[in-house]
Structure formats: structure tokens, C-alpha cells
Amino acid sequence: MSETLSVKRPGWWKLAWIAGPLGLTGYLSGVTLWTVLTAKSEVPWRDQWVFLDDVRSILAGAHVLHTLWYPHWGHRHLITRLVIWFDVRFLSGLNTPLIDASLVLQAAHTAMFCYVAWRLLRRAPAWVYLLLMTVTIQLAFCPLQLENLIWAPQLVFKHAGEAASAAFCLLALYAAQEGRAGVKGRIMLGGCGLAAVVSTLARPDGIFVWPVLFVQAVVLRLSKRVRWVLALAGCSLAVLYFWGYDAGPAMGMGVRRAVLHPEQSLPLLGMLAVGPLSVISPFWGTWLGSAALLVIFYALVRAFRASSQPPAMLTVYGAVAVFSLLSLSAIVAGRLSPEFVAAREEAHLDVLP
Questions:
Q1: What 3-state class would DSSP assign to 75?
Q2: 40 close to 149: Cβ distance less than 8 angstroms
């Protein structure tokens, strides 16, 4: 199985051309990191007070499983509560260790994507790899990530997506492994399952990691045994997660309305798909995002219709794209609506807070 894409090597001037975007990305990432390190506070923020109350209840002798598992605003914050408990129990309840850990995990997530790009493009020109690495670092550490990085409980909530990415990467590495039945192959497959469980227990849309893993296994032509294990694990966790589930107050369009009225839900999905542009201009974000959705749909159709098996590491990007689209669809159904967007615009507020 070929894992690399071969491209004719260009001249050195393209390496000099990429130095500008790379330097700008380094500067903006430095601004983000400096802001996080200098503006962080030990004062709990937003829902963190709820988690601290939960930990206080556990330490006071409350029912541990119920306190860890009950839904809050449509989320079962099991892992978040465990992290806050550990912070209170051993780190004096400070935010700094959680924010530092968030930065480390964000850097690890970025490094993982750079590794995937290297595995895929190691025979391609250096400027192609540097361009992809520049985009990856920019998305991971641009100033739009400030709220994710400086809000301590986001350590878990945000990194559910990183656990999903790790699961997709490990499954691709397992597929690229020659001796899949060996110890190394079993470790990769077990790590894939563990990462998927973490993603599921950290955020409601983490449940989407299982169908995406199943599709990725089909594309990679893995054995029926692996597909059955992924399918059964996903179904079992879905039943466990939604048993006694309370979605909380209705805020978004709802699944029924989003499906029956795509003319309303798809523009919102497009706006979310190009979030940074939508922050600048909701109008252009909606139109450009809708165009991007068409391109993504075309690429997915071409990928499924292809007769040859794609490079294993290429499926990581496809899996992340599909998982992200499913997560954004869940936000439209559960958090956004045309009325919400119109009210924000009339009040001259950011459409995407």
C-alpha cells in the first residue's frame, strides 16, 4: 500500500515564497501564546462553577456515579468533572495547570497532523509540506483559539476533537502496518478504541467518532472483524450515553426541523464551516461556506467511487472532515437557528460568539 504522494520538485524560490506565510503564522501564534500566558486567571469562569459544585458534592459524600454522569446543558461532562476533581484534589483548584495542559495537548494535536502530513508528503516538494504545516499551525494557534485555550474546562471539552483525531490517525497507522496481528498492531487498534471512548465521554458529538471510524475502516478495507468491533462498540456506547439523557432547554433548530428545512440549516452549516470568515462577515461566510460544502461533498463522492485504495494517512484528513461536519451539524440542530442569527445581527453582536 502506497502511503505517499509523489510530486515533481520545484525550484528553491518556492521555499522562499512560503517563508512569508510561515513567518506570519509564527508571529500570530506567538501573540496567542503570550496572551494566554499573561492574561490567564485563577478565577473560575462560566460553567466551571457548576463543575466545582459537583466536585464539592463528591468530596462531601454525594453519589459519585450520578454526580459524574448527569447531563448539564446536553453534555455528560464525565471526563471534565474527573479532571476538575483531580485539579481540586491535588492542584489546589488552580486554573494554571489546566491551561498549561491544554497548551501541551494543543501542541501535541498540531504535531500529530504535521506527522500525518509528513507521512503523506515525504516524497513531495518541501514547500508543499511547509505550506500544509503552516496552515495546520495557524488553525491551531491563531487568536480565534483564545477562548478555547484560556478557559480551563475547555481542556477536556475542546480536546474531545483531538481524541477523535488520534483515533483516526491510529486506525490509519494500523492499516499501514504490515503485521497487523502483531503486538504493535494490537496496541494501535486498542489505542484507537481508547481515544474514541475518550472523545465520546467528553462531548455529545464525540459519539460520531464511531460511525466515522467504521467508514474509515471500510475505505481502508480492514477485516470484517475490525468493522464489527467498531460497529458494536459504537452502538453500545450510544445506548449507554443516551440512556436517561436530558438534552436541556431547546436552543437550536432541532434535528427534525434541520432535516426537513435544509434551505435554513445548510446556510448555517456553511457559516460554521468557515468560522473565521463568518466572524468577519456572516454574509460572505454563509455563501463561501455553502460553496465549500459543495466542494467537500464532491470530494467525498469521488473518494467513495474511486476503485483504488487511497493512501492510509490520507483517510485521516477525510475522517476529520466528516467528523467535523457531523459536529457542526449537531451545533446547528442543538445550538443555532435562523432566529438566533437574526437576533444577533439586529443587536449588532457577533453572530458566532
A1: strand
A2: no
Dihedrals phi, psi of 71, to nearest 5 degrees: -75, 145
Q: According to the model, what pLDDT value does residue 7 have?
A: 46
The predicted-structure confidence for 124-139, as pLDDT tens digits, reads as follows 888 888 888 999 999 8
What are the residues facing 72 on neighbouring strands? 75
Q: What is the DSSP string of 279-290?
A: HH-HHHHHHHHH
DSSP string covering 36-59: HHHH--SS--TTHHHHHHHHHHHH
Angle between helices 96-121 and 314-334 (to 10 degrees): 140
Amino acid present at 225 = R
3-state secondary structure of 72: strand
- The full length of the chain comes to 353
Max CA separation in the chain (angstroms): 68
Does residue 71 sit in helix, strand or coil?
A: strand
Taking the CA atoms of 100, 101, 102 and 106 in sequence, report the sign of the dihedral they define. Answer: positive
Residues whose CB is less than 8 angstroms from the CB of residue 176 and which lie 6 or more positions away in sequence, other chains included: 1, 3, 312, 313
For 243, half-sphere exposure in the C-beta direction (CA atoms, 13 angstrom radius) is 8
Distance CA 141, CA 116 (A): 18
Non-local (6+) Cβ contacts of 211 within 8 A are 234
CA 353 to chain centre: 18
3-class SS of residue 300: helix
Q: Phi-psi region for residue 73, left (φ > 0), alpha (ψ -120 to 50) or beta?
A: left
Give pLDDT < 50 ranges for the chain. Answer: 1, 6-8, 10
Rounded to two decimals, the pTM is: 0.87
Tell me how crowded residue 79 is: count the other CB atoms within 10 A of its CB. Answer: 23
What residue spans of 182-281 are helical by DSSP H? 183-202, 209-219, 224-242, 255-260, 262-273, 275-280
- Residue whose C-alpha is closest to residue 46's, from 160, 204, 203, 153: 153
Would you say 262 and 290 are in contact if contact means Cβ atoms under 8 Å apart? no
Tell which residue, 118, 216, 220, 212, has the closest CA to residue 175: 220
Nearest CA among 163, 229, 156, 210 for reference residue 322: 210
